Amino acid sequence: MREGYEGTGPGAITPDGCAVELYARLPVADEPDIIAAAVPAGAHILELGSGVGRVTHPLLERGFTVTAVDESADMLARVRGARTIRSSIEDLDLGERFDVVILASFLVHAGDEEVRRGLLRTCVRHVAEGGCVLIQREGADHHTDVPRERVDPSGFTVRITSVEPAGEGVSSRTRSGPRRSCPDR
């Protein structure tokens, strides 16, 4: 697990610097609809970086079987109805295959190339033959169209104030109000 990232916010802070309570307050967006439209009904899904279950719970409601993976016990404590596994994604080896592997939360934008490769190796290791891997990533202009902000439907403002190159094809974001120092979940 990657320890040592600093984060601020209400409640427990995860090893990668995320405020658990902040993620628990985020509303469900359109991710569950996009996933449900892309995969077979009733599929067995491995959700890498599940956080508090913001996407997990709607997938369960749609009849999918979900195994939720996160490195934070505090995040996983909020997940209900799914099998939960506490592990870093890069180190995960369940010895089983899934119809669908989801690598959401923009985790694929990690600044360290070996971390990105580890994330993708985990996807390959766990997808069944004929299955699919769904990866969430930013649009092409996300790292150049700054500053920008949006008001979340739950009432707080997310403001992206700067973007800096972190490696080949990868950038780091700085946000303000509320402060977050980890990938979107």
Automatic annotation (TrEMBL):
GO terms classed as biological process: methylation
Domain Methyltransferase: from-to ranges: 45-131
Signal peptide boundaries: none
UniProt xrefs under SUPFAM superfamilies: S-adenosyl-L-methionine-dependent methyltransferases
Keywords, ordered alphabetically: Methyltransferase, S-adenosyl-L-methionine, Transferase
The protein's name: Methyltransferase
One Gene Ontology term of the molecular function aspect: methyltransferase activity
Region (Disordered): 162-185
Source domain of life: Bacteria
Gene3D superfamilies in UniProt: Vaccinia Virus protein VP39
